[in-house]
Amino acid sequence: MPLTPSVPARPDPAASHRAIENLIARYAELVDGGDFAGLGELLAGATFTGSGSPVSGADAIEEMFRRTLIVYGDGTPRTKHVTTNVIIELDDDTAAARSYVTVYQALPELPLQPIAVGRYHDRFACDGTSWRFTERRVHIDLVGDVSRHLRAAAG
Question: What are the SnoaL-like domain coordinates in residue numbering (predicted)?
Fold first, then answer.
């Protein structure tokens, strides 16, 4: 019997949508939990572009978050990232997504309030079994009091 290379099955659209939504939610969970090593792992194969130069690679992304975000005694930035209006466009084993993000923060001396509102533009790839980020671009449209969230704003 001749050997033929296996062709990965085309990703199921419904399962793909759910997997991509989970990646988007996982990002928020990791940021809000102060798990910057986890963010590096999640985005290891991606290029991250925020307010600075694009960053790639797990170690560089982890370090960028450590340099940028203020972390409090509980090990978190005391934020909640709420992602809404998620639009996912599939194309075989790649996908693009757009979504809105609202970042809330509260501290003993800071009442709960939105501190930033913006958009995520993401790209993903599927290796036949799982989806992963290949790009995350963050566009912040409205900024509130980020002095207790971003190191540059605090200094």
Answer: 15-137
